[in-house]
Amino acid sequence: MKIAVLADIHANYPALEATVDHIERWQPDTVLVAGDLINRGPKPVECLHLIQKMQTQRGWEVIRGNHEEYVLWHSLPDSPREGPLFELFRYSYWTYEKLDEQAALLEAMPDEFSKNIPAAGEFRCVHASMKSNRRGIYPEMADETIKKLINPPPALLAVGHTHRPLIRQIGQTLVVNAGAVGLPFDADRRPAYAQITFSQGHWSAEIVRLNYDITQAKRDFYDTGFLDQAGPLSKIIQLELEISLSQLFQWTHIYMNAVLDEKISIKQAVDEYLRDPLDRPYW
User: Fold this and answer.
1) Rounded to two decimals, what is the model's pTM?
2) Which of 111, 184, 185, 261 is 20 to 30 A from residue 209's alpha carbon, by CA?
3) In the β-sheet with 202-209, what is the strand arrangement from edge to edge?
4) Cis peptide before 153 (omega within 30 of 0)
5) 3-state SS assignment for residue 128
6) Where are the beta strands (DSSP E) in the chain?
């Protein structure tokens, strides 16, 4: 049995195209998309349409990530349309507006996928961990910490969220973090996805890295209007694409409270951060 797991596309259409092409040539029995198809990137509609096509034509399975939830938040009647909180999430509002009525598709996505496979046990897929879709599994975590995040333990657990690949046996569970298709955070620009196989009575996995047209991915930030219309944090996201390291989390940790308290504007906070982003901690 062959299973492909991809995650964290983040509206990077060229990276998704390259990944879909490679998966199609590998011809797995099952394909799982482990959330964060959209948001934090410039081509959400195109990515959503391509994944829908693969669902319809190839039977791909899709679950929801935290970024789908961020976009759905804008559909709530009390979600802001102005002020500091709105500015912090302007990039997800930009995505929400692009999706228009298609946002309802996000509501239909399940939070997890589970399948009992004869002789192989349970295969489960969630976006981040069994605790929540925002509490991720990182390479530097100790086994005992990961154990708490995978309970109840299946035979195979596939996740995403951290944008950093991981393959580790934790007790009876093979834990596979597929990394990120559209926005890797391990200093490697290449899209990542997981090839998982069950053979001769046990699960094994490999992380595949792919070359793709990153020049077009960079151009999309300009051509789609994302940089001009999605607010100052779009520049932080652009930096993440350039250097393949997490930056938005660090920016939020340093500046979010000051922005919400209106001690500094979001534009000023972004400009200040961008003066020396490589001096910041990455995780």
Assistant:
1) 0.96
2) 111
3) 61-62, 30-33, 2-6, 192-199, 202-209
4) no
5) coil
6) 2-6, 30-33, 61-62, 112-117, 121-126, 156-159, 166-170, 173-177, 192-199, 202-209
